[in-house]
Structure of Carbamoyl phosphate synthase small chain:
Amino acid sequence: MSRNTQPSALLVLEDGRVFRGRSYGAEGETFGEAVFSTGMTGYQETLTDPSYHRQVVVQTAPHIGNTGMNDEDPESRRIWVAGYVVRDPARLPSNWRSRRSLDDALRADGVVGISGVDTRALTRHLRERGAMRVGISSTETDPDALLERVLASPVMKGAELAAEVTTTEPYVVPAVGTRKYTVAAVDLGIKSMTPHRLAERGVEVHVLPATTTLDQLLALEPDGVFMSNGPGDPETADHPVKVLRGVLDRGIPFFGICFGNQVFGRALGLGTYKLRYGHRGINQPVQDLTTGKVEVTAHNHGFAVAWPTGAADSPDSADDAGDASPAGRSRRHAHAEIETDFGPARVTHVCLNDDVVEGLSLSDRDGRTRAFSVQYHPEAAAGPHDAAYLFDRFVGLMADSTGTTTLPEGAA
Ligand SMILES: NC(=O)CC[C@H](N)C(=O)O
């Protein structure tokens, strides 16, 4: 269908700003938190990432849908975004893998979108004012009426959403080739590329519901535990934090990604806080403080782990713009190491744009890493593969720990 024949649509932000465009995807009305993603490619992976549940995604790339939708790249069984905002959708998708148009895929999953929006102006607005609630409607013509419903819709801060996206039943992703290790992966909104990255390294991955108890997890006798990305506010993740504390207490190797990094931070005794507009895109520079090396990475987070000195001094917080100057950096980095209930821990990675915490690790008394996590996405779907070494590092932790625990006493 030509775009010009599609009904008009309305977008209203919670601070009253109005944008007009055309209905894109399903017709109807939707609400969520308006966030922008700067990825120039990878819209299919973005749309199907469960971490975007209840978020309305604005694409800063002006042309979206050019390569259609294929059967290989989805990161879960459906499109999760609550709404979709684009400038100029493809009229004719073209790619050898394309099976359907993005417009049709949005319709099939009932996802309401809007096209023809000045996404640059909208992004600048969100950057200045912060992420906020939004409504999109192809049925309402009165912005004030839509605004009332936006203001009645739920906020992201305090939202507990893992239960709405997690698997209901455990399932196994078999190791590719010989099985070397077994990992219990807690699904808080897992992207399908993550178990795949482990499986291709000889790991059998048991993906478990978010409600799995410590006893159920330990019954699998895993060589390592993983906690995934996922939607919502990490402050609500009391159950995964409790489970993880049990895992760390037993010295089982642990790796966390994104929401998993926030759960790890909380398990170590750190706080979390909401960023003003968050990081979403596939070209974010992250520095490994332990080596000085910089990686270009994929991000999708609206919350972050607070620096050990406290959330008030953490950069880009919703309440406090923080201090991202070199002086602010060195003051914070001087507190990168902390003593926790499980041993010495530290901030290992930071985002070079704003000094937000991007990685954590926990060591034993001999200084050997036992557990670690990153706020970004080494599974790289979509995104650069700079951080793939982290999966090898996790496998290395399991090799170390099984090596030391399975050798007979006295053997060296
Ligand atoms: N991708 C994620 O895991 C996001 C974690 C969390 N919901 C956040 O927005 O920060």
User: Anything to note?
Assistant: Confidence is low (pLDDT under 50) at residues 404-412.
